[in-house]
Amino acid sequence: MPEEQTERAGSEYGAHRTWLAISPIVFTGLIIAILTAAGIGARYGVRGDFDVFHVLLILFFSINLVICHWEVCLFFRRDYIEKRAEYWRERRDETGRTSAVEFLTGRVPLTRILSSTVWADVWATYAQFDGSYADRRTYGYNADVANGFVTPVPTLILFAAFTVDFLPALVAGIIGAMLFWQLIYATSVYWVSFFVAKQQRRLGRKDMYIYIWGLNCPWVLFALLGLYVSVRLILNGNYSVLGY
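^ thats the sequence. predicted structure below, dont judge the formating
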C-alpha cells in the first residue's frame, strides 16, 4: 500500500472490509487471556490448585509480554509513528473522536494483525496525550524501547518459575527483585518526566486519569506485589509465598 494511501486509511487497515478481521482491543484481550489461562492451567495441571498471588502475577506477565511486542514496534517503526501522530491529530480535529479509542475499536485484517505497522498506531495515538512517544529523544520513548527489548526474557523465566518452580527460590527471587524494581523505577521516572515537561497542560482531567495514571499504574502496583513476592522468595528460600 503506498504511503499516501496508508495515511488515509486510518484505523481500518486496507480500507476494504472483510469478515476475517478483528479489532486491536479484542485481539489484545484474547492474547492476554490465552497466556494467563496457560499459566494458571499449567499450575493447576501440575499441582491441582490456585493461588491469588500467582494468578495476579501471571496476568501481569502476560500483559507485559504483549506490551513488549508493542515496544519493539515503537523502535522499528519510529519514523512511521512520527508521521502517524500527525495523521491522528488531524483525524481527531476532524471527527472529535478520541484517537486511541478509534484505533483500538477499528477493524484489522487477520493477515495483518501482527504487523508492526498496525501496532505502531498504539504509540501514534498515545502521542496525542504524551508527545514524547513521537520523539525518540525523550525519556518516555527510550524507557519503553528498553523495556521491550530487556524484560521479555526475565518475564518468561519468572512466568515459568512461578508456575512450576523449576528454579531455586533464591534465584527466582533475585531475578524478580531486579525486574520488578526496574519497572517501578522506570514508571515512576516516566511520571516525573511527564509533569516536569508540563505535558499535563495539554490534557483534561479525564484523559489524565485514564491515559497517564490509569494505563501506567499496573507497572507500579503489580510490580510492588512482584517485589514483595521476590523478597519473600529470597528470605524464605522456598515458594511458600506462592502457595507451594
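Residues 1-12 have pLDDT under 50 and may be disordered.
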